[in-house]
Each structure stands twice: as structure tokens, then as C-alpha cells.
Design a protein that fits this description.
39 strands, Quinoprotein_ADH-like_sf, mainly beta, metal-binding, ADHI, five-stranded mixed β-sheet, five-stranded antiparallel β-sheet, oxidoreductase, Methanol/ethanol family PQQ-dependent dehydrogenase
């Protein structure tokens, strides 16, 4: 839109929502993305949130391995020019890299050289309140790139030029609805889930036609009257019950089932919404054709701790107790490491154990998988209640990884954090925070005698045994991890700005590199012209910074002055 058109339309630069794209040079040779390529991606590409539909976060590349990773060196960097928390993995399709940043930007780069092809900048509304001003990546389909925005739109961009193709409104950002996830694309459907559980919204998952942007189906995560599960709510609590679906789901292509993680109930104190509160703090099995809920498993009932379980479980073929089965594995924010069995129309409990210290659960019922609660550590109205782990749980949204070589799950865990708050009844005002407590009353403190906080853990899900652990003395671990067939585990997540690589079998630290900022985003590995690269976005902010701010002064050496600013770092082995 030209300046003249803006004036004629009655708009001014401060209020018109005009997104822009700048082209340094269109992409000449772009490989269309098909169902076959997403279901069985080439080893050198990273086209989905965790590379593959199963969500394992595993690269089959072996050129960089335990014997030569010591020679890893930066080959190019790219500054995004954006502040706040960068949480997206770079998405790579045959030599083209797409980088999503906070503030609604997408940058297309040459994955070999770092040269910019184009940049899309979304013009966000001036009155948008962004509780989590970030993005976790873009989805790919055919010749388009899909972005979910914090002002609650899905935008399709031309992959070669960055030019918008369609723009569809999902919900109303003024009511606290927003999105931060990478869209999941399945058979030509662009599937996203809504955030905003802290605003008393009703969560949902929705699908759009990849070509036109037309809505195909919408499934609410809180059942209405007459729907299965509605009887787990009292009165009209379901209308503002939370259940945000703000992380990308995983997909079982054999049974055509999407597994989507669902967030906590709203507001936080469970006494304000009596009942089990389906489908909050659960995993849903959805039919991608129509959005129908095929099955579910609720990790914990009547959530009162803000323990979102939005990180979708990994799909792993497993042998345990003398039998083979298809599993769902989820190290939960509720501090329980969950092993479930997935069937086309059912999810069965297999095992669950605490992977960090917790005083909330006394155990897990062997038959049902229902956690056994200690009521002394469940928040209620009018009384301050302390609990461990803290509000951010044993593991927040940063994803774990699974190695097909070692058969181990690698968990970015947080230990020795406790929290608490006093439940307080407040009226629901659309578009305003509705927590059930005052934000200034939320506590975060180290457990007595704590000597470390972050833990990179390696677990054998088949036996429930921890194989190794790396401790972080003066930082939480707040970043997704990735495993490779070179027996490496890639991890950032700390306030010291280091990117680290570990031996996947032993936990030995093999390599580290200080970056410009802290790293929350998940690392990836890809290949161009026969060279394997490792890439990650560095850029601290959002919840990682909030944890730092809460602990500064309480823990010796806990630094909260972490520089911000996004930079894409790309590494390769220095060939001597």
C-alpha cells in the first residue's frame, strides 16, 4: 500500500496494519515440500519442528561425531536485528534456511553462506500485549511458508519471495488470544493451537487449507455441554477453563493420529474450577481429517500449579518388560517422566516416575496412571501454599530428544526450584491476566541445600534408569536439546551464553562455544553439498529471563544480566 493509498483510506502509519517484505534476491531453485518428504525427510534437511513427525529431535547425520566435534568452528553468523527470546529452530529445505524471530519476522537465508534472500516483517498492533513475544518456527508445504503470529493470525508466504499469499484471522488478540507455535502441516492442512490460558480463554486446535487459508475444522480443548468430558467441569467454568494448545503437535502417519499437548486449567487454584477438568494438562489424539478427539490421557487432574503439558510426547517404538510396543514418552512439567502406550483409539499408562524432586506427588496409581496428590502442596484460595518443583516445573516447554543410536531420552531438566502463591479470586476481564493470584505474589526460590539447578539428564525409558547427568551450578537449563547419529547431544539453555555438545553415551562435555546471548531455541543439524552443519539461534528472553530475574540476589553467582539480541550461529568441522 502506497502512502497515498494510506491517506485515502484514512490510515496513518501509527495505526495501519501493513506487513512488509523485502527481497534481496528471490530464491531461484526451491524444492516443493510434499507429504512424502515430510513423512520421510532427507537426512540433510530439517523441515519440521523436531525434524520428523515423531518429535524425536534426532538427526541421522554422522559426519560430525565424537571423534571430530572438537574441531567444530563457526562458519557464518547472521544477526536478526530483533530483541527478546528467540525460540525457533532454523528450518532447512535443500539449502534454504527459514528463520522465525520475535515480532513476527521470517528471514530466508542461504543455508551454506548466510546470504539473505528475503525478509518478512509483520506490522503488529500497537495495543498488542505479548506475554510471550516469540515464535517457534515456520511450517512448510509445497511452495509456501506458514507463520503463526502473536496477534493471532496464520499467514502464508511465497517461499521464493516472502510475499504474503493469504492471511487468516484465528481469534481475537484483544481477548488474550495469541500464538507462538510452529504450524504443523499434514496432508495440505495447516494446523495450529491457541495460546492465552493465562487470560481465561478456552483453548482450541484448528486446521486451515494450505492453499486458500479457509478454516476446515476447529476442536476446543475444553468440552462444551453434551460433549464427552464436560461432566469433569462445574457450572460454567468450562467457558474460561484454559487448556491452551500452544506447542506444535506430533503425528503418527500410520494411524493418522496427531498427538497434541494441552495446557493448564484456568485460573490456577483448582478450587476455582472443581473437577478433573478435561482436557487440560493432557495429550489429545486428534484425527487430522476432521479434528475429532480419538483418545486422550490426562497427566494430572485439576491443575493448580500452572503446569502446562503442551510439549507433545515423542513417538518411540520401544521394548520394555519383555514386549515391544509403540509408545508416547513425555518428561512432564509436573515432574513425572511418562511412558505411555499409543493405540489407534486408546492411550494406556505404562510407567511414570519423578525425574526431579517433588513434594506434590506421593506416587502414581499403577492401574490408572493417576498421580497421587499430597494436598498440603496444592494451591488453594486464601492461603499461601509452597510446592516443588516451581511454577516452571521439572521441564517447561523446551523439548527433550531421543537418540535412535543410544535408545536414551535427553531431558533439559530443572532441579532444586520451589515456588508458591496465595490463591485469590478476581473477576475475569477479557484481555487481562487472570491467574487466580497476584503476579507480584508468585514465588520462586532455591530448595534448601541446593548445590545446582539445571540438569541435562539421560534416561533409558525402557528401564526407568538414569544413565548420566550433567549439572549446571548457577543457571537453570531452559533450552531444547537435540541428538544426532554421531552420538552427540546439542544443548544451550543457560545464562552463561554457552552452546555445548556432549557425548550422548557418557555425558562427557566435548565442545563449547560462547555466543552473543543465551540460547533457548533448539539446535538443528543439516547438510548442504556434502558438508554437515550445526545451527542454533541465540537470543535470551521471555521465561528464561523471568527466572533469572526472580533468582538474582537469592543465589550466589546467578547472573541475570544476559545480553539480548538474536543471532543465527552455524558451525561445521574445520577441515585441516
Amino acid at each position: 500500500m502506497t502512502r497515498k493509498q494510506l491517506l485515502l483510506s484514512g490510515c496513518v502509519a501509527f495505526s495501519c496494519l501493513v506487513s512488509t517484505f523485502a527481497v534481496a534476491g528471490p530464491i531461484e531453485n526451491y524444492s516443493p515440500v510434499t507429504s512424502a518428504r515430510l513423512e520421510n525427510p532427507e537426512p540433510g534437511n530439517w523441515m519440521l519442528y523436531r525434524r520428523t513427525y515423531d518429535g524425536q529431535g534426532y538427526s541421522p547425520l554422522t559426519q560430525i561425531n565424537t571423534s571430530n566435534v572438537k574441531d567444530l568452528t563457526p562458519v557464518w553468523t547472521f544477526s536478526t536485528g530483533v530483541l527478546e527470546g528467540h525460540e525457533a529452530p532454523p528450518i532447512v529445505n535443500n539449502g534454504v534456511m527459514f528463520v522465525a524471530t520475535p515480532m513476527g519476522q521470517v528471514i530466508a537465508l542461504n543455508a551454506k553462506t548466510g546470504e539473505e534472500y528475503w525478509r518478512y516483517k509483520r506490522q503488529l498492533p500497537d495495543d498488542l500485549f505479548q506475554l510471550h513475544p516469540t515464535s517457534r518456527g515456520v511450517g512448510l508445504w509445497q511452495d509456501k511458508v506458514y507463520l503463526a503470529t502473536t496477534d493471532d493470525h496464520v499467514v502464508a508466504l511465497d517461499a521464493k519471495t516472502g510475499k504474503p499469499v493469504w492471511d487468516t484471522k484465528v481469534q481475537d488478540y484483544k481477548k488474550g488470544q495469541y500464538m507462538t507455535l510452529m504450524p504443523l502441516v499434514v496432508d495440505g492442512k495447516v494446523i495450529v493451537g491457541g495460546s492465552g490460558g493465562e487470560f481465561g480463554v478456552r483453548g482450541y486446535v484448528v486446521a486451515y487449507d494450505a492453499n486458500s487459508g479457509k478454516e476446515l475444522w476447529r476442536t476446543f480443548t475444553i468440552p462444551a455441554e453434551g460433549e464427552p468430558g464436560h461432566d469433569t467441569w462445574s457450572g460454567d467454568d468450562w467457558k474460561s477453563g484454559g487448556g491452551a494448545a500452544w506447542m506444535t503437535g506430533n503425528y503418527d502417519k500410520d494411524t493418522k493420529t496427531i498427538y497434541w499437548g494441552i495446557g493448564n486449567a484456568a485460573p490456577w487454584p483448582g478450587s476455582m474450577h472443581p473437577g478433573d477438568n478435561l482436557y487440560t494438562s493432557s495429550v489429545l489424539g486428534l484425527d487430522p481429517e476432521n479434528g475429532k478427539i480419538k483418545t486422550h490421557f490426562q497427566y494430572h487432574q485439576n491443575d493448580s500449579w500452572d503446569w502446562d503439558e503442551v510439549d507433545a510426547p515423542m513417538l518411540i517404538d520401544m521394548q520394555r518388560d519383555g514386549r515391544s510396543f509403540k509408545s508416547l514418552v513425555h518428561p512432564g512439567r509436573d515432574a513425572i517422566f511418562w511412558v505411555l502406550e499409543r493405540k489407534p483409539d486408546k492411550i494406556n499408562y505404562v510407567a511414570g516416575w519423578p525425574f526431579v524432586k517433588t513434594n506434590v506427588w506421593k506416587g502414581v496409581e499403577a492401574e490408572t496412571g493417576r498421580p497421587i496428590l499430597d494436598p498440603d502442596h496444592k494451591p488453594v484460595l486464601g492461603k499461601r501454599v509452597e510446592f516443588c518443583p516451581s511454577l516452571w516445573g521439572g521441564k517447561d516447554w523446551p523439548s527433550a530428544a531421543y537418540s535412535q543410536n543410544t535408545k536414551l531420552v535427553y531431558v533439559p531438566a530443572n532441579e532444586n526450584f520451589c515456588g508458591g502463591f496465595t490463591g485469590e479470586k478476581t473477576p475475569l476481564v477479557p484481555g487481562q491476566l487472570w491467574l487466580g493470584t497476584r503476579p507480584e505474589d508468585i514465588g520462586l526460590s532455591p530448595a534448601p541445600g541446593a548445590d545446582h539447578f539445571g540438569e541435562l539428564q539421560a534416561w533409558d525409558p525402557a528401564t526407568g534408569k538414569k544413565v548420566w547427568q550433567h549439572d549446571y551450578k548457577t543457571s537453570q537449563l531452559f533450552g531444547a536439546v537435540t541428538a544426532t547419529a554421531g552420538d552427540l547431544v546439542l544443548a544451550g539453555g543457560t545464562n552463561d551464553r554457552f552452546f555445548r555438545i556432549f557425548n550422548a553415551k557418557t555425558g562427557e562435555l566435548l565442545w563449547e562455544q560462547k555466543t552473543n546471548s543465551g540460547i533457548m531455541a533448539m539446535p538443528i543439524s543439516y547438510e548442504v553439498d556434502g558438508t554437515q552443519y550445526i545451527a542454533v539461534q541465540s537470543g535470551w528472553g521471555v521465561d528464561a529471563q523471568r527466572i533469572q530475574d526472580a533468582l538474582a540476589g537469592k543465589v550466589a553467582g546467578f547472573e541475570n544480566n544476559v545480553p539480548q539480541g538474536g543471532v543465527v550461529w552455524v558451525f561445521a568441522v574445520n577441515k585441516k
